[in-house]
Amino acid sequence: MPPGGSRNFLRPVEADTGRPRPGSPADSIGEQAKRIFPGPLLARWLRQSAELERVGLAGGILVAYQRYSPTIAEAVDPEAAFAFIDVVKSLAFASGRQAAILCSAAGAKAAVKLQSPDDFARWSAIMAETADRAPESASAICERMETLLTRLSLDGFESWLSTGLRVGGSDRQRRLQFFTFADPTAERALLREAGDTLFADMERRLRSFATALWGHPLVLREHGMTASGALIRRPSFDGDFVRVPPSYPGVRGGQAEALYRASLAHIAAHLRFGSGRFPVGGLKPLQIALVSLVEDARVEHLAMRMLPGLRRLWLPYHVARAGGSLTAELMLPRLARALIDPSFVDEDAWIVKGRALFFDKRADLEDATLSRRIGNLMGNDLGQMRVQFNQRTYVVEPAYRDDNLGLWNFDQGNPDEADALDEVVESRRIERQETEDPEEPQRQETEREEDSAQRVKPRERPDEHGVPIARLPEWDYAAGRERPQWVTVMEWPMKEGDPRWVDEVLHRRRDTLARIDGLVRAARVSRPLRVNRQPEGDRLDLDACITAAIDRRPGPRAGSSALHHHRAAASRSFHPAAARLLAVHRGPGAGFDLERPAGRAGGGCPLGARARRGGRSLRHPRLQLERARGAALPPH
Asked: Cα dist. 586→36, 157, 580, 590 in Å?
Protein backbone atom coordinates (compact mmCIF):
# COMPACT_ATOMS: atom_id res chain seq x y z
CA MET A 1 0.00 0.00 0.00
CA PRO A 2 1.36 3.51 -0.76
CA PRO A 3 2.72 5.59 2.16
CA GLY A 4 0.09 7.25 4.33
CA GLY A 5 -2.43 4.52 3.66
CA SER A 6 -3.64 6.06 0.40
CA ARG A 7 -6.24 4.02 -1.42
CA ASN A 8 -6.32 5.99 -4.70
CA PHE A 9 -6.33 2.74 -6.65
CA LEU A 10 -9.94 2.23 -5.45
CA ARG A 11 -11.19 5.64 -6.45
CA PRO A 12 -14.06 5.31 -8.95
CA VAL A 13 -13.14 8.52 -10.85
CA GLU A 14 -10.06 10.28 -12.05
CA ALA A 15 -9.29 13.21 -9.77
CA ASP A 16 -8.36 15.52 -12.64
CA THR A 17 -11.01 14.67 -15.24
CA GLY A 18 -13.98 13.44 -13.19
CA ARG A 19 -14.36 10.50 -15.61
CA PRO A 20 -14.92 6.95 -14.35
CA ARG A 21 -11.84 4.79 -13.98
CA PRO A 22 -11.95 1.97 -16.51
CA GLY A 23 -13.28 -1.19 -14.93
CA SER A 24 -14.54 0.51 -11.74
CA PRO A 25 -18.16 0.03 -10.55
CA ALA A 26 -18.78 3.64 -11.45
CA ASP A 27 -17.85 2.87 -15.05
CA SER A 28 -20.96 0.78 -15.75
CA ILE A 29 -23.19 2.83 -13.45
CA GLY A 30 -22.00 6.02 -15.13
CA GLU A 31 -23.11 4.70 -18.48
CA GLN A 32 -26.60 4.13 -17.07
CA ALA A 33 -26.66 7.62 -15.55
CA LYS A 34 -25.74 9.52 -18.70
CA ARG A 35 -29.40 9.93 -19.58
CA ILE A 36 -30.19 11.37 -16.16
CA PHE A 37 -27.06 13.51 -15.74
CA PRO A 38 -26.23 15.00 -19.15
CA GLY A 39 -23.00 16.83 -19.90
CA PRO A 40 -21.12 18.35 -16.95
CA LEU A 41 -23.73 17.07 -14.48
CA LEU A 42 -22.34 13.54 -14.93
CA ALA A 43 -18.85 14.62 -13.87
CA ARG A 44 -20.33 16.40 -10.87
CA TRP A 45 -22.29 13.29 -9.91
CA LEU A 46 -19.14 11.17 -10.12
CA ARG A 47 -17.25 13.64 -7.96
CA GLN A 48 -20.09 13.37 -5.43
CA SER A 49 -19.63 9.61 -5.46
CA ALA A 50 -15.91 10.03 -4.92
CA GLU A 51 -16.66 12.24 -1.92
CA LEU A 52 -18.38 9.31 -0.19
CA GLU A 53 -15.25 7.20 -0.56
CA ARG A 54 -13.04 10.03 0.59
CA VAL A 55 -14.88 10.19 3.94
CA GLY A 56 -14.73 6.42 4.37
CA LEU A 57 -18.21 5.52 3.08
CA ALA A 58 -17.32 3.29 0.16
CA GLY A 59 -18.72 -0.17 -0.44
CA GLY A 60 -22.45 -0.67 -0.01
CA ILE A 61 -23.15 2.98 0.81
CA LEU A 62 -21.48 4.14 -2.39
CA VAL A 63 -23.21 1.52 -4.53
CA ALA A 64 -26.62 2.37 -3.02
CA TYR A 65 -26.15 6.10 -3.65
CA GLN A 66 -25.07 5.49 -7.26
CA ARG A 67 -28.02 3.17 -7.76
CA TYR A 68 -30.80 5.36 -6.33
CA SER A 69 -29.64 8.95 -6.82
CA PRO A 70 -30.47 8.91 -10.57
CA THR A 71 -34.08 8.12 -9.60
CA ILE A 72 -34.06 11.15 -7.30
CA ALA A 73 -32.66 13.34 -10.09
CA GLU A 74 -35.24 12.10 -12.57
CA ALA A 75 -38.23 12.42 -10.19
CA VAL A 76 -37.22 15.77 -8.65
CA ASP A 77 -34.12 17.38 -10.22
CA PRO A 78 -30.33 16.78 -10.29
CA GLU A 79 -29.68 19.34 -7.56
CA ALA A 80 -31.84 17.31 -5.18
CA ALA A 81 -29.70 14.23 -5.89
CA PHE A 82 -26.52 16.18 -5.22
CA ALA A 83 -27.86 17.62 -1.96
CA PHE A 84 -29.11 14.22 -0.86
CA ILE A 85 -25.55 13.02 -0.33
CA ASP A 86 -25.42 15.10 2.85
CA VAL A 87 -28.39 13.15 4.22
CA VAL A 88 -26.65 9.85 3.40
CA LYS A 89 -23.53 10.97 5.24
CA SER A 90 -25.57 12.18 8.23
CA LEU A 91 -27.30 8.82 8.60
CA ALA A 92 -24.05 6.92 8.09
CA PHE A 93 -22.29 8.76 10.90
CA ALA A 94 -25.30 8.87 13.24
CA SER A 95 -26.95 5.48 12.64
CA GLY A 96 -24.45 3.28 10.85
CA ARG A 97 -23.78 1.92 7.40
CA GLN A 98 -26.97 -0.12 7.09
CA ALA A 99 -29.12 2.93 7.78
CA ALA A 100 -27.24 4.91 5.13
CA ILE A 101 -27.81 2.16 2.55
CA LEU A 102 -31.50 2.01 3.36
CA CYS A 103 -31.68 5.80 3.28
CA SER A 104 -30.73 5.87 -0.42
CA ALA A 105 -33.54 3.46 -1.27
CA ALA A 106 -35.96 5.46 0.91
CA GLY A 107 -34.86 8.67 -0.80
CA ALA A 108 -35.76 7.27 -4.20
CA LYS A 109 -39.21 6.26 -2.95
CA ALA A 110 -39.74 9.66 -1.35
CA ALA A 111 -38.69 11.43 -4.56
CA VAL A 112 -41.21 9.48 -6.62
CA LYS A 113 -43.97 10.23 -4.08
CA LEU A 114 -43.18 13.91 -3.47
CA GLN A 115 -41.62 15.11 -6.80
CA SER A 116 -41.53 18.74 -5.64
CA PRO A 117 -37.97 20.03 -4.96
CA ASP A 118 -39.16 21.94 -1.89
CA ASP A 119 -41.00 18.93 -0.48
CA PHE A 120 -38.04 16.63 -1.07
CA ALA A 121 -35.67 19.11 0.58
CA ARG A 122 -38.02 19.24 3.55
CA TRP A 123 -38.20 15.45 3.70
CA SER A 124 -34.39 15.29 3.63
CA ALA A 125 -34.14 17.74 6.52
CA ILE A 126 -36.72 15.73 8.51
CA MET A 127 -34.74 12.52 8.01
CA ALA A 128 -31.45 14.13 9.02
CA GLU A 129 -33.02 15.55 12.19
CA THR A 130 -34.70 12.24 13.04
CA ALA A 131 -31.41 10.37 12.64
CA ASP A 132 -29.79 12.82 15.00
CA ARG A 133 -32.54 12.46 17.65
CA ALA A 134 -33.27 8.73 17.23
CA PRO A 135 -30.25 7.12 15.53
CA GLU A 136 -31.29 3.58 16.49
CA SER A 137 -34.60 3.98 14.62
CA ALA A 138 -33.39 5.41 11.31
CA SER A 139 -33.18 1.99 9.60
CA ALA A 140 -36.69 1.04 10.73
CA ILE A 141 -38.11 4.30 9.39
CA CYS A 142 -36.32 3.97 6.04
CA GLU A 143 -37.54 0.38 5.59
CA ARG A 144 -41.16 1.54 5.95
CA MET A 145 -40.86 4.74 3.93
CA GLU A 146 -43.08 3.67 1.04
CA THR A 147 -45.91 2.66 3.37
CA LEU A 148 -45.57 5.81 5.45
CA LEU A 149 -45.61 8.22 2.51
CA THR A 150 -48.44 6.31 0.85
CA ARG A 151 -50.61 6.72 3.94
CA LEU A 152 -49.46 10.16 5.08
CA SER A 153 -48.90 13.61 3.67
CA LEU A 154 -45.53 15.21 4.35
CA ASP A 155 -47.07 17.15 7.24
CA GLY A 156 -48.55 13.93 8.61
CA PHE A 157 -45.23 12.12 8.23
CA GLU A 158 -43.41 14.83 10.18
CA SER A 159 -46.10 14.83 12.86
CA TRP A 160 -45.96 11.03 13.15
CA LEU A 161 -42.19 11.12 13.62
CA SER A 162 -42.61 13.86 16.21
CA THR A 163 -45.11 11.70 18.07
CA GLY A 164 -42.66 8.80 18.14
CA LEU A 165 -39.88 10.98 19.46
CA ARG A 166 -42.13 12.30 22.20
CA VAL A 167 -43.46 8.88 23.14
CA GLY A 168 -39.97 7.40 23.35
CA GLY A 169 -38.34 10.38 24.97
CA SER A 170 -34.79 9.43 25.95
CA ASP A 171 -35.56 5.69 25.98
CA ARG A 172 -33.88 4.20 22.89
CA GLN A 173 -35.72 0.89 23.21
CA ARG A 174 -39.13 2.52 23.42
CA ARG A 175 -38.39 4.72 20.41
CA LEU A 176 -37.42 1.63 18.42
CA GLN A 177 -40.60 -0.16 19.49
CA PHE A 178 -42.65 2.79 18.22
CA PHE A 179 -40.96 3.04 14.82
CA THR A 180 -41.12 -0.72 14.25
CA PHE A 181 -44.85 -0.72 15.17
CA ALA A 182 -44.21 -2.99 18.14
CA ASP A 183 -45.90 -0.26 20.21
CA PRO A 184 -49.66 0.01 19.41
CA THR A 185 -49.36 3.77 19.90
CA ALA A 186 -47.51 3.97 16.57
CA GLU A 187 -50.37 2.36 14.69
CA ARG A 188 -53.00 4.64 16.22
CA ALA A 189 -50.86 7.71 15.60
CA LEU A 190 -50.40 6.72 11.96
CA LEU A 191 -54.12 6.26 11.47
CA ARG A 192 -54.93 9.58 13.12
CA GLU A 193 -52.40 11.44 11.00
CA ALA A 194 -53.86 9.75 7.91
CA GLY A 195 -57.29 11.14 8.86
CA ASP A 196 -58.90 7.73 9.24
CA THR A 197 -61.84 7.15 11.57
CA LEU A 198 -60.57 4.85 14.30
CA PHE A 199 -62.30 1.91 15.90
CA ALA A 200 -61.06 3.16 19.28
CA ASP A 201 -63.15 6.33 18.89
CA MET A 202 -66.40 4.35 18.63
CA GLU A 203 -65.56 1.16 20.51
CA ARG A 204 -68.06 1.71 23.32
CA ARG A 205 -70.96 2.31 20.93
CA LEU A 206 -70.03 -0.68 18.79
CA ARG A 207 -69.72 -2.94 21.80
CA SER A 208 -73.21 -1.93 22.93
CA PHE A 209 -74.58 -2.46 19.42
CA ALA A 210 -73.12 -5.97 19.17
CA THR A 211 -74.50 -6.92 22.58
CA ALA A 212 -77.94 -5.49 21.81
CA LEU A 213 -78.39 -7.64 18.68
CA TRP A 214 -78.67 -11.02 20.39
CA GLY A 215 -77.95 -10.19 24.03
CA HIS A 216 -74.51 -11.79 23.74
CA PRO A 217 -71.49 -9.60 24.64
CA LEU A 218 -68.39 -9.80 22.46
CA VAL A 219 -64.77 -9.21 23.41
CA LEU A 220 -63.52 -6.65 20.88
CA ARG A 221 -59.86 -6.02 20.11
CA GLU A 222 -58.02 -4.26 17.30
CA HIS A 223 -55.86 -6.07 14.81
CA GLY A 224 -52.23 -5.04 14.99
CA MET A 225 -50.34 -3.91 11.93
CA THR A 226 -47.85 -6.16 10.19
CA ALA A 227 -44.16 -5.51 10.78
CA SER A 228 -44.06 -3.47 7.57
CA GLY A 229 -46.85 -1.19 8.77
CA ALA A 230 -49.53 -2.70 6.50
CA LEU A 231 -53.12 -2.88 7.70
CA ILE A 232 -55.03 -6.14 8.12
CA ARG A 233 -58.18 -5.50 6.12
CA ARG A 234 -60.75 -7.97 7.45
CA PRO A 235 -62.12 -8.76 10.92
CA SER A 236 -61.69 -12.21 12.42
CA PHE A 237 -63.22 -14.09 15.33
CA ASP A 238 -62.51 -17.04 17.54
CA GLY A 239 -65.58 -17.75 19.64
CA ASP A 240 -66.58 -14.57 21.46
CA PHE A 241 -63.18 -13.00 20.87
CA VAL A 242 -63.31 -10.63 17.88
CA ARG A 243 -60.50 -8.69 16.23
CA VAL A 244 -61.36 -5.81 13.92
CA PRO A 245 -59.18 -3.53 11.75
CA PRO A 246 -58.16 -0.38 13.64
CA SER A 247 -59.59 1.57 10.70
CA TYR A 248 -60.86 1.14 7.16
CA PRO A 249 -58.67 3.36 4.95
CA GLY A 250 -60.69 5.81 2.91
CA VAL A 251 -63.89 5.23 4.92
CA ARG A 252 -64.59 8.01 7.40
CA GLY A 253 -67.20 9.38 9.75
CA GLY A 254 -70.63 7.79 9.76
CA GLN A 255 -69.72 5.50 6.87
CA ALA A 256 -66.90 3.98 8.94
CA GLU A 257 -69.20 3.33 11.88
CA ALA A 258 -71.79 1.74 9.57
CA LEU A 259 -69.12 -0.59 8.16
CA TYR A 260 -68.03 -1.62 11.66
CA ARG A 261 -71.67 -2.25 12.58
CA ALA A 262 -72.14 -4.42 9.50
CA SER A 263 -69.01 -6.42 10.39
CA LEU A 264 -70.05 -7.00 13.99
CA ALA A 265 -73.60 -7.90 12.98
CA HIS A 266 -72.21 -10.46 10.53
CA ILE A 267 -69.91 -12.04 13.14
CA ALA A 268 -72.73 -12.02 15.69
CA ALA A 269 -74.87 -13.92 13.15
CA HIS A 270 -72.15 -16.58 12.92
CA LEU A 271 -72.11 -16.94 16.70
CA ARG A 272 -75.90 -17.02 16.92
CA PHE A 273 -76.70 -19.38 14.03
CA GLY A 274 -73.46 -21.25 13.42
CA SER A 275 -72.93 -24.82 14.55
CA GLY A 276 -69.26 -24.93 15.41
CA ARG A 277 -66.20 -25.23 13.22
CA PHE A 278 -66.17 -27.21 9.98
CA PRO A 279 -63.56 -29.99 9.67
CA VAL A 280 -61.26 -29.29 6.73
CA GLY A 281 -61.02 -32.90 5.63
CA GLY A 282 -59.92 -33.15 2.02
CA LEU A 283 -61.17 -29.74 0.89
CA LYS A 284 -58.97 -27.63 -1.37
CA PRO A 285 -58.49 -23.87 -0.75
CA LEU A 286 -61.07 -22.93 -3.40
CA GLN A 287 -63.66 -25.24 -1.84
CA ILE A 288 -62.92 -23.81 1.62
CA ALA A 289 -63.54 -20.29 0.26
CA LEU A 290 -66.83 -21.33 -1.36
CA VAL A 291 -68.16 -23.24 1.67
CA SER A 292 -67.32 -20.16 3.77
CA LEU A 293 -69.18 -17.92 1.30
CA VAL A 294 -72.31 -20.07 1.41
CA GLU A 295 -72.12 -20.25 5.21
CA ASP A 296 -71.92 -16.43 5.33
CA ALA A 297 -75.11 -16.23 3.25
CA ARG A 298 -76.85 -18.91 5.35
CA VAL A 299 -76.32 -17.22 8.72
CA GLU A 300 -77.22 -13.82 7.27
CA HIS A 301 -80.55 -15.11 5.95
CA LEU A 302 -81.35 -16.65 9.33
CA ALA A 303 -80.47 -13.36 11.03
CA MET A 304 -82.63 -11.39 8.57
CA ARG A 305 -85.60 -13.63 9.36
CA MET A 306 -85.50 -12.33 12.93
CA LEU A 307 -84.17 -8.82 12.22
CA PRO A 308 -85.21 -7.83 8.66
CA GLY A 309 -83.50 -4.44 8.96
CA LEU A 310 -80.10 -6.13 8.77
CA ARG A 311 -80.55 -6.41 5.00
CA ARG A 312 -80.35 -2.60 4.75
CA LEU A 313 -77.13 -2.74 6.78
CA TRP A 314 -75.40 -5.37 4.64
CA LEU A 315 -76.74 -4.85 1.13
CA PRO A 316 -74.91 -1.55 0.27
CA TYR A 317 -71.55 -3.31 0.48
CA HIS A 318 -72.41 -5.86 -2.22
CA VAL A 319 -71.26 -3.95 -5.28
CA ALA A 320 -70.07 -6.76 -7.58
CA ARG A 321 -71.32 -6.46 -11.17
CA ALA A 322 -72.32 -9.11 -13.64
CA GLY A 323 -69.88 -9.95 -16.41
CA GLY A 324 -66.13 -9.72 -16.50
CA SER A 325 -63.37 -12.29 -16.72
CA LEU A 326 -63.75 -15.81 -15.33
CA THR A 327 -61.47 -15.52 -12.31
CA ALA A 328 -62.28 -16.70 -8.81
CA GLU A 329 -61.56 -13.23 -7.38
CA LEU A 330 -64.42 -11.84 -9.54
CA MET A 331 -66.79 -14.80 -9.53
CA LEU A 332 -67.01 -15.22 -5.73
CA PRO A 333 -68.18 -11.64 -4.99
CA ARG A 334 -70.82 -12.01 -7.73
CA LEU A 335 -72.13 -15.18 -6.10
CA ALA A 336 -72.12 -13.50 -2.68
CA ARG A 337 -74.31 -10.71 -4.05
CA ALA A 338 -76.62 -13.13 -5.85
CA LEU A 339 -77.33 -14.92 -2.56
CA ILE A 340 -78.43 -11.76 -0.69
CA ASP A 341 -79.73 -9.33 -3.32
CA PRO A 342 -82.99 -10.48 -5.00
CA SER A 343 -82.78 -7.66 -7.55
CA PHE A 344 -79.28 -8.61 -8.78
CA VAL A 345 -79.35 -10.07 -12.30
CA ASP A 346 -76.42 -12.22 -13.42
CA GLU A 347 -77.03 -14.64 -16.27
CA ASP A 348 -73.77 -16.54 -15.89
CA ALA A 349 -74.63 -20.26 -15.66
CA TRP A 350 -72.44 -20.83 -12.61
CA ILE A 351 -74.07 -17.93 -10.71
CA VAL A 352 -77.55 -19.09 -11.72
CA LYS A 353 -76.81 -22.61 -10.50
CA GLY A 354 -75.44 -21.39 -7.16
CA ARG A 355 -78.47 -19.20 -6.54
CA ALA A 356 -80.85 -22.05 -7.42
CA LEU A 357 -79.07 -24.54 -5.15
CA PHE A 358 -79.23 -22.12 -2.23
CA PHE A 359 -82.83 -20.88 -2.52
CA ASP A 360 -84.27 -24.29 -3.38
CA LYS A 361 -83.12 -25.39 0.07
CA ARG A 362 -84.42 -22.29 1.84
CA ALA A 363 -86.44 -24.43 4.23
CA ASP A 364 -83.24 -26.23 5.32
CA LEU A 365 -81.15 -23.13 6.14
CA GLU A 366 -80.87 -24.14 9.79
CA ASP A 367 -78.82 -27.17 8.70
CA ALA A 368 -75.15 -26.06 8.61
CA THR A 369 -74.16 -29.01 6.42
CA LEU A 370 -76.05 -27.31 3.59
CA SER A 371 -73.16 -24.86 3.21
CA ARG A 372 -70.65 -27.65 2.77
CA ARG A 373 -72.77 -29.52 0.22
CA ILE A 374 -73.38 -26.45 -1.94
CA GLY A 375 -69.81 -25.19 -1.59
CA ASN A 376 -68.37 -28.54 -2.68
CA LEU A 377 -70.56 -28.66 -5.78
CA MET A 378 -69.77 -25.07 -6.78
CA GLY A 379 -66.06 -25.63 -6.20
CA ASN A 380 -66.05 -28.73 -8.41
CA ASP A 381 -67.71 -26.75 -11.19
CA LEU A 382 -65.07 -24.00 -11.03
CA GLY A 383 -62.36 -26.65 -11.09
CA GLN A 384 -63.82 -28.17 -14.26
CA MET A 385 -63.94 -24.65 -15.78
CA ARG A 386 -60.17 -24.35 -15.07
CA VAL A 387 -60.77 -21.15 -13.09
CA GLN A 388 -57.58 -20.10 -11.31
CA PHE A 389 -57.64 -19.34 -7.58
CA ASN A 390 -54.71 -17.75 -5.72
CA GLN A 391 -55.28 -18.36 -2.02
CA ARG A 392 -52.42 -16.05 -1.00
CA THR A 393 -53.91 -12.98 -2.65
CA TYR A 394 -57.58 -13.77 -2.05
CA VAL A 395 -59.47 -11.29 0.15
CA VAL A 396 -63.02 -12.01 1.30
CA GLU A 397 -65.61 -9.70 -0.24
CA PRO A 398 -67.59 -7.63 0.59
CA ALA A 399 -65.57 -5.58 3.05
CA TYR A 400 -67.75 -6.17 6.12
CA ARG A 401 -67.30 -9.96 6.14
CA ASP A 402 -64.67 -11.66 8.27
CA ASP A 403 -61.67 -13.67 7.07
CA ASN A 404 -63.54 -16.98 7.71
CA LEU A 405 -60.78 -18.43 9.89
CA GLY A 406 -63.28 -18.77 12.73
CA LEU A 407 -65.36 -21.21 10.69
CA TRP A 408 -62.74 -23.93 10.29
CA ASN A 409 -60.93 -26.41 12.47
CA PHE A 410 -57.44 -26.37 11.01
CA ASP A 411 -56.06 -28.80 13.59
CA GLN A 412 -57.76 -31.95 12.30
CA GLY A 413 -56.63 -32.01 8.70
CA ASN A 414 -55.76 -35.22 6.93
CA PRO A 415 -51.95 -35.56 6.63
CA ASP A 416 -52.41 -36.25 2.94
CA GLU A 417 -53.76 -32.75 2.48
CA ALA A 418 -51.20 -31.08 4.77
CA ASP A 419 -49.66 -28.99 1.99
CA ALA A 420 -52.98 -27.44 0.96
CA LEU A 421 -53.91 -26.91 4.60
CA ASP A 422 -50.60 -25.19 5.38
CA GLU A 423 -51.16 -22.85 2.44
CA VAL A 424 -54.55 -21.76 3.76
CA VAL A 425 -53.33 -21.24 7.31
CA GLU A 426 -50.15 -19.42 6.34
CA SER A 427 -51.85 -17.03 3.93
CA ARG A 428 -54.66 -16.19 6.34
CA ARG A 429 -52.82 -16.17 9.68
CA ILE A 430 -49.45 -14.61 9.01
CA GLU A 431 -50.50 -11.16 10.21
CA ARG A 432 -52.05 -12.58 13.36
CA GLN A 433 -48.81 -14.35 14.33
CA GLU A 434 -46.85 -11.13 14.06
CA THR A 435 -49.10 -9.39 16.56
CA GLU A 436 -49.85 -12.24 18.93
CA ASP A 437 -49.97 -11.19 22.56
CA PRO A 438 -49.18 -13.85 25.19
CA GLU A 439 -51.33 -12.05 27.73
CA GLU A 440 -54.41 -11.93 25.46
CA PRO A 441 -56.24 -14.97 26.96
CA GLN A 442 -56.04 -13.44 30.42
CA ARG A 443 -57.37 -10.09 29.15
CA GLN A 444 -60.12 -11.92 27.26
CA GLU A 445 -61.30 -13.70 30.41
CA THR A 446 -61.17 -10.46 32.37
CA GLU A 447 -63.29 -8.65 29.82
CA ARG A 448 -65.86 -11.43 29.73
CA GLU A 449 -66.31 -11.11 33.46
CA GLU A 450 -66.72 -7.35 33.10
CA ASP A 451 -69.25 -7.72 30.30
CA SER A 452 -71.30 -10.23 32.27
CA ALA A 453 -71.51 -7.73 35.10
CA GLN A 454 -72.52 -5.03 32.59
CA ARG A 455 -70.09 -2.59 34.14
CA VAL A 456 -66.40 -1.92 34.42
CA LYS A 457 -64.87 -1.95 37.86
CA PRO A 458 -61.84 0.26 38.44
CA ARG A 459 -58.80 -1.66 39.54
CA GLU A 460 -56.77 -0.31 42.39
CA ARG A 461 -53.04 -0.36 41.91
CA PRO A 462 -50.25 -0.18 44.44
CA ASP A 463 -49.31 3.31 45.51
CA GLU A 464 -45.97 3.17 43.75
CA HIS A 465 -47.76 2.75 40.39
CA GLY A 466 -50.63 5.15 40.95
CA VAL A 467 -54.31 4.79 40.04
CA PRO A 468 -55.56 5.87 36.56
CA ILE A 469 -58.44 8.32 36.93
CA ALA A 470 -58.83 10.07 33.54
CA ARG A 471 -57.74 10.32 29.90
CA LEU A 472 -57.28 13.88 28.64
CA PRO A 473 -56.48 15.46 25.27
CA GLU A 474 -53.23 17.34 24.76
CA TRP A 475 -52.28 20.14 22.42
CA ASP A 476 -49.03 19.43 20.57
CA TYR A 477 -47.62 22.86 19.86
CA ALA A 478 -44.84 21.45 17.65
CA ALA A 479 -47.26 19.58 15.37
CA GLY A 480 -49.98 22.23 15.67
CA ARG A 481 -52.78 19.79 16.48
CA GLU A 482 -54.75 18.33 19.36
CA ARG A 483 -54.16 14.71 20.24
CA PRO A 484 -57.39 13.26 21.69
CA GLN A 485 -57.27 10.93 24.72
CA TRP A 486 -53.49 11.36 24.79
CA VAL A 487 -52.55 11.74 28.46
CA THR A 488 -53.42 9.25 31.18
CA VAL A 489 -53.78 10.97 34.56
CA MET A 490 -52.39 8.78 37.35
CA GLU A 491 -53.15 9.69 40.97
CA TRP A 492 -50.49 9.23 43.64
CA PRO A 493 -50.69 10.05 47.35
CA MET A 494 -48.87 13.32 47.84
CA LYS A 495 -45.80 13.28 50.01
CA GLU A 496 -45.47 15.81 52.78
CA GLY A 497 -43.36 18.85 52.01
CA ASP A 498 -42.54 22.33 53.20
CA PRO A 499 -45.78 24.41 53.31
CA ARG A 500 -43.74 27.58 53.07
CA TRP A 501 -43.21 26.86 49.37
CA VAL A 502 -46.99 27.04 48.80
CA ASP A 503 -47.26 30.29 50.70
CA GLU A 504 -44.40 31.73 48.70
CA VAL A 505 -46.04 30.85 45.38
CA LEU A 506 -49.41 32.24 46.48
CA HIS A 507 -47.75 35.47 47.54
CA ARG A 508 -45.64 35.83 44.41
CA ARG A 509 -48.60 35.18 42.09
CA ARG A 510 -51.31 36.91 44.10
CA ASP A 511 -52.40 39.05 41.12
CA THR A 512 -53.02 35.96 38.97
CA LEU A 513 -54.80 34.16 41.79
CA ALA A 514 -57.04 37.18 42.39
CA ARG A 515 -58.11 37.21 38.73
CA ILE A 516 -58.85 33.47 38.75
CA ASP A 517 -60.72 33.77 42.03
CA GLY A 518 -62.89 36.56 40.62
CA LEU A 519 -63.70 34.62 37.47
CA VAL A 520 -64.68 31.54 39.43
CA ARG A 521 -66.85 33.46 41.88
CA ALA A 522 -68.64 35.20 39.00
CA ALA A 523 -69.42 31.90 37.29
CA ARG A 524 -72.72 30.16 37.90
CA VAL A 525 -73.22 26.49 37.27
CA SER A 526 -76.94 25.89 37.15
CA ARG A 527 -79.73 24.13 35.32
CA PRO A 528 -81.80 26.15 32.82
CA LEU A 529 -85.44 26.62 33.81
CA ARG A 530 -88.40 26.64 31.43
CA VAL A 531 -90.34 29.89 31.51
CA ASN A 532 -93.97 29.31 30.39
CA ARG A 533 -96.73 31.51 28.91
CA GLN A 534 -94.48 33.89 26.99
CA PRO A 535 -95.51 35.91 23.90
CA GLU A 536 -92.33 34.74 22.11
CA GLY A 537 -90.16 31.69 22.46
CA ASP A 538 -88.49 28.76 20.73
CA ARG A 539 -91.35 26.30 21.37
CA LEU A 540 -95.11 26.30 21.81
CA ASP A 541 -96.42 26.03 25.36
CA LEU A 542 -98.96 23.23 24.94
CA ASP A 543 -100.75 23.94 28.21
CA ALA A 544 -101.19 27.58 27.26
CA CYS A 545 -102.45 26.59 23.79
CA ILE A 546 -105.06 24.25 25.27
CA THR A 547 -106.20 26.93 27.72
CA ALA A 548 -106.48 29.49 24.89
CA ALA A 549 -108.55 27.09 22.76
CA ILE A 550 -110.94 26.47 25.67
CA ASP A 551 -111.28 30.20 26.33
CA ARG A 552 -112.43 30.79 22.75
CA ARG A 553 -115.29 28.25 22.82
CA PRO A 554 -118.00 29.89 25.00
CA GLY A 555 -118.03 33.07 23.00
CA PRO A 556 -116.07 36.00 21.67
CA ARG A 557 -113.50 36.76 24.33
CA ALA A 558 -109.93 37.83 24.08
CA GLY A 559 -107.58 34.86 24.00
CA SER A 560 -104.13 34.93 25.45
CA SER A 561 -101.22 35.58 23.09
CA ALA A 562 -98.70 34.11 25.54
CA LEU A 563 -98.44 30.72 23.87
CA HIS A 564 -94.69 30.06 23.96
CA HIS A 565 -92.03 29.04 26.40
CA HIS A 566 -88.30 29.47 26.38
CA ARG A 567 -85.38 28.47 28.54
CA ALA A 568 -83.86 31.08 30.79
CA ALA A 569 -81.07 31.11 33.34
CA ALA A 570 -82.09 29.38 36.52
CA SER A 571 -83.14 31.43 39.51
CA ARG A 572 -81.50 28.79 41.66
CA SER A 573 -77.89 27.76 41.43
CA PHE A 574 -75.90 25.18 43.23
CA HIS A 575 -72.32 25.06 44.41
CA PRO A 576 -70.37 22.75 42.12
CA ALA A 577 -68.02 20.03 43.16
CA ALA A 578 -64.81 20.75 41.32
CA ALA A 579 -61.21 19.70 41.04
CA ARG A 580 -58.48 21.90 39.66
CA LEU A 581 -55.59 20.16 37.95
CA LEU A 582 -52.32 22.04 38.23
CA ALA A 583 -49.61 20.75 35.87
CA VAL A 584 -46.13 21.60 37.13
CA HIS A 585 -43.70 21.80 34.22
CA ARG A 586 -39.93 21.88 34.39
CA GLY A 587 -38.21 23.64 31.53
CA PRO A 588 -34.66 22.86 30.37
CA GLY A 589 -32.19 24.26 32.83
CA ALA A 590 -34.89 25.87 34.95
CA GLY A 591 -36.59 25.13 38.22
CA PHE A 592 -40.27 24.66 38.86
CA ASP A 593 -42.40 27.65 37.92
CA LEU A 594 -45.97 28.66 38.61
CA GLU A 595 -48.50 25.83 38.67
CA ARG A 596 -50.53 26.18 35.48
CA PRO A 597 -54.23 25.28 35.41
CA ALA A 598 -54.44 22.37 32.98
CA GLY A 599 -58.10 21.49 33.33
CA ARG A 600 -61.24 22.01 35.38
CA ALA A 601 -64.19 19.73 36.05
CA GLY A 602 -67.72 20.74 36.93
CA GLY A 603 -67.29 24.49 36.53
CA GLY A 604 -65.08 25.83 39.29
CA CYS A 605 -64.92 26.98 42.88
CA PRO A 606 -63.15 29.72 44.88
CA LEU A 607 -59.51 28.92 45.35
CA GLY A 608 -58.96 26.64 48.28
CA ALA A 609 -62.68 26.02 48.84
CA ARG A 610 -62.87 22.47 47.55
CA ALA A 611 -59.76 20.64 46.46
CA ARG A 612 -56.37 21.13 44.93
CA ARG A 613 -54.31 18.63 43.04
CA GLY A 614 -50.83 19.03 41.67
CA GLY A 615 -49.35 17.15 38.77
CA ARG A 616 -45.89 16.61 37.39
CA SER A 617 -45.01 15.23 34.00
CA LEU A 618 -43.69 11.69 33.84
CA ARG A 619 -42.57 9.83 30.77
CA HIS A 620 -45.24 10.51 28.16
CA PRO A 621 -48.15 9.77 27.90
CA ARG A 622 -48.82 9.74 31.66
CA LEU A 623 -49.25 12.58 34.08
CA GLN A 624 -48.62 11.99 37.75
CA LEU A 625 -51.29 13.59 39.89
CA GLU A 626 -50.95 14.06 43.65
CA ARG A 627 -53.87 15.02 45.88
CA ALA A 628 -52.83 18.10 47.84
CA ARG A 629 -56.02 18.96 49.71
CA GLY A 630 -59.60 17.77 49.86
CA ALA A 631 -62.71 18.97 51.64
CA ALA A 632 -66.26 17.74 52.08
CA LEU A 633 -68.87 19.25 49.82
CA PRO A 634 -71.40 21.67 51.36
CA PRO A 635 -75.08 20.70 51.34
CA HIS A 636 -77.05 21.81 48.27
From this structure: 53, 28, 19, 6
